[in-house]
Amino acid sequence: MNDTLINLEATLFCGQTFAWTKEGNRYEAVLGGRHVIFEEQDFYALVTEDAMLSHYFDMEWEYDEAERVLSARDPHLAARIKQYRSIHILNQDPWEVLVSFLLSQNNNIKRIRSMYRSLSEAYGTEVAPGVFAFPRPSQLESVTEAEFRALGMGFRAPYLVSTIAQSELLESLNTLDYVSAKEQLIGIRGVGEKVASCILLFGYHHMEAFPLDTWMQKVMKKYYPTKDKTFFAPYAALAQQYLFHGERLGGRL
DNA sequence: GGCCAGGCCCCAG
DNA sequence: CTGGGGCATGGC
């Protein structure tokens, strides 16, 4: 792990998590009820001695090899990888990912982050002055649809209510394969193909996932009109993250 | 001040 | 099974 590289800025703000803030070179979030705050230059020392964070930041996966394989396969992707290396896929709490991406539909990343914070401040545990954890299912089980609407959740409010009632389903997904787990998730109201893919990728590290949102559909049409996710196998998810992030921030190279 | 956003549900053909 | 309208809200 000593020379494992990570692009913290891109990893934490490429749309896979909505939990982090950055001021100057200081990163801050609440992970597993724990207030995590560090300066960029202290990151590698921190993850070396902290197993929970090392796992969260996915410091042991084969990013070097994956970046090499993907770069060799396609010049556009190679340019994106060079531009943003090394984005990691975080190991997040499936519950937070499920709710975050429920909120994501017909929405923008800025406002998803704001809604994530609203839920935390309204129902989560305060772990430090003014710093709130994302609420656990038990903290939301008696919240009504009207209360979620009053908090600005809009048409997603009923999805939140029914999802909270089904949250225990997440426990059973660890042992399922990708296809079976996705079937289970799509059974939840408000969870479709795309959101289920995101949950399985960001919450369960299924690196064969390939979420196709509006940005990725543009990318596929523009650069890969005759291809699909199999072109990027077995690293489809990582390719997707670079292509998505690059398209959002950089536009055409 | 319209337009649009990491979609999904629902209903018509 | 495929296509397209509707949906709450706020950032731009």
UniProtKB/TrEMBL annotation:
Coiled-coil residues: none
SUPFAM superfamilies according to UniProt: DNA-glycosylase, TATA-box binding protein-like
InterPro entries reported for this sequence: DNA_glycosylase (IPR011257), HhH-GPD_domain (IPR003265), HhH_base_excis_C (IPR023170), OGG_N (IPR012904), Oxidative_DNA_repair_enzyme (IPR052054)
Top-level taxon: Bacteria
A biological process from GO: nucleotide-excision repair
The entry's keywords: DNA damage, DNA repair, Glycosidase, Hydrolase, Lyase, Multifunctional enzyme
Enzyme nomenclature, EC number: 4.2.99.18
Leading EC class: lyase
Catalysed transformations (reactions): 2'-deoxyribonucleotide-(2'-deoxyribose 5'-phosphate)-2'-deoxyribonucleotide-DNA = a 3'-end 2'-deoxyribonucleotide-(2,3-dehydro-2,3-deoxyribose 5'-phosphate)-DNA + a 5'-end 5'-phospho-2'-deoxyribonucleoside-DNA + H(+)
Gene3D superfamilies reported in the protein's UniProt record: 3.30.310.260, Helix-hairpin-Helix base-excision DNA repair enzymes (C-terminal) (1.10.1670.10), Hypothetical protein, domain 2 (1.10.340.30)
Residues annotated as domain HhH-GPD: 103-248
GO MF terms held by the record: class I DNA-(apurinic or apyrimidinic site) endonuclease activity; damaged DNA binding; oxidized purine nucleobase lesion DNA N-glycosylase activity
Family under the similarity heading: Belongs to the type-1 OGG1 family.
Name of protein: DNA-(apurinic or apyrimidinic site) lyase
Lineage per the UniProt record: Bacteria, Pseudomonadati, Spirochaetota, Spirochaetia, Spirochaetales
